[in-house]
Write a structure and sequence with these properties.
The chain is 78% helix and 0% strand. It is mostly helical. The chain is elongated.
């Protein structure tokens, strides 16, 4: 229990009164403390979510072009996307990766180094489940990077070749991205 208390509470076992029924300002300060670090954590979660939305927005453009545009309009939209895809995908996935590392350290259920403190994560009641969910996020991130590389390559090829099979490859990759997003939604819901 000492490891759990030391890892969770800011002042460790000092923050827990000897009498568990006693209400002290120390206990309330642990429960209701909100400071600049908390604001920064919220900002990083928000930025992480926005970067993810930007990435999935790129996938959405491919799917909308495939399903709802005429061949000429689709070719034009995907050619424009081809010019913008690599910088936007690189920025959004870079922000997702960096803010994900920040969130793993500072928004984890234990004090920094957060979920990277594997010995403590293994001892707290929800630690193993949290680590499995984190592993799922890392796997999904790797898949999304792979999809981004393949989509960028496909969009470059498409600018020089507008064969129907090129569109099909892009659409399959976009649907793989959607599937990865659904997996992420389920994975994150485990942590809620």
């Amino acid at each position: 229990e000492a490891t759990f208390i030391d890892a969770i509470l800011p002042r460790g076992s000092e923050a827990v009164p000897d009498d568990p029924t006693a209400e002290t300002s120390q206990t309330l300060s642990v429960l209701f403390r909100f400071d600049g670090q908390d604001v920064l954590n919220i900002v990083f979660r928000f930025v992480h979510s926005l970067a993810g939305l930007a990435w999935f927005g790129l996938i959405g453009v491919v799917l909308v072009a495939d399903r709802f545009m005429s061949p000429a309009a689709r070719a034009e939209a995907l050619n424009r996307l081809g010019r913008l895809f690599t910088p936007i995908a690189t920025a959004s996935l870079g922000v997702v990766g960096l803010s994900g590392v920040y969130n793993t350290v500072w928004n984890a259920p234990i004090q920094p180094p957060g979920a990277f403190n594997l010995p403590v994560m293994g001892t707290i009641p929800f630690g193993p489940v949290y680590l499995v969910a984190l592993a799922g996020k890392l796997l999904a991130f790797a898949v999304l990077v792979f999809i981004a590389i393949r989509l960028a390559s496909g969009l470059r090829r498409l600018s020089s070749n507008s064969e129907p099979e090129a569109y099909g490859s892009l659409t399959r990759l976009a649907w793989a991205g959607v599937g990865t997003g659904i997996f992420l939604a389920i994975d994150v819901s485990i942590l809620i």
